[in-house]
């Protein structure tokens, strides 16, 4: 339904890696922009549309993307539905397009890449509403073992996540809608940063808060 917010997650079949190179991450990231168009994928001759001079193409968006985070064997998205059925359509497009790209790239591989259909989890319990974007933003912490201060700096600079865009790195910032995120989640940059920091060393507490909510599966 228009106005719904949902958590989308999926992982590789048999927990296999779905991103083997920066080019793989880039392809999926670019599709977050190019496939979010009612009339179909926006075609481009460029290997990456970000970093090019000039205005990016206009889109008639299916969804607003609040958060995205890509990990070696799974991904997380936080989406807001703009048109009826937009979240489902966008999620299907992402999975199909990336599977086709991955199979062609890997010597004509065939078959499923993802474990199953992506989980689309509507966020219905307002009590847990504030915690999910924090969970998605903290996901890349699993990739490093560093001090608390270094963790936050790592998250802000992690290339394959939307969090960097919330801290001044524009690059691919056109993928997300920061203003609507702050409005819908009734927060602001300072408050959200404080909330993020408060859970950075206590993810177990964050997971308990979320898993209390019926139907929330954090492991993609």
Characterise the protein shown here.
- The protein has a single domain (5-211), classed as Transposase IS200-like (Alpha-Beta Plaits, 2-Layer Sandwich).
- The protein has 220 residues and is an alpha+beta fold.
- It is built from 7 helices and 4 strands, in the order βαββαβααααα.
- It is globular, with a radius of gyration of 17 Å.
- Residues 213-220 have low confidence and may be disordered.
- α1 packs antiparallel against α2.
- The protein has helices at residues 22-34, 86-105, 131-138, 148-157, 178-184, 189-199, 203-211; strands spanning 5-11, 63-71, 74-81, 119-122.
- A hairpin with a 2-residue loop joins β2 (63-71) and β3.
- The protein has a 4-stranded antiparallel sheet with strand order 2-3-1-4.
- The protein starts with a strand and ends in a 9-residue tail after the last helix.
Summed up:
The chain is α+β, with helices and mostly antiparallel strands.
């Amino acid at each position: 339904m228009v106005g719904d917010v949902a958590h989308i997650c999926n992982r590789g079949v048999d927990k296999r890696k779905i991103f083997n190179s920066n080019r793989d991450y880039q392809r999926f990231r670019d599709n977050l922009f190019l496939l979010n168009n009612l009339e179909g994928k926006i075609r481009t001759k460029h290997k990456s549309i970000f970093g090019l001079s000039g205005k990016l193409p206009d889109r008639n968006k299916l969804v607003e993307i609040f958060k995205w985070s890509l990990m070696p064997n799974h991904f997380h998205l936080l989406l807001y539905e703009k048109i009826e059925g937009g979240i489902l359509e966008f999620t299907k497009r992402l999975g199909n397009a990336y599977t086709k790209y991955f199979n062609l790239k890997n010597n004509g591989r065939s078959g499923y890449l993802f474990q199953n259909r992506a989980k689309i989890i509507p966020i219905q319990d307002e009590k847990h509403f504030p915690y999910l974007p924090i969970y998605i933003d903290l996901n890349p912490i699993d990739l490093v073992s560093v001090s608390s201060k270094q963790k936050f700096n790592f998250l802000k600079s992690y290339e394959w996540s939307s969090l960097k865009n919330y801290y001044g790195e524009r690059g691919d910032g056109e993928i997300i809608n920061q203003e609507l995120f702050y409005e819908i989640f009734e927060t602001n940059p300072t408050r959200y940063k404080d909330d993020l920091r408060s859970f950075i060393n206590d993810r177990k507490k964050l997971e308990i808060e979320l898993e209390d909510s019926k139907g929330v599966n954090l492991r993609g």
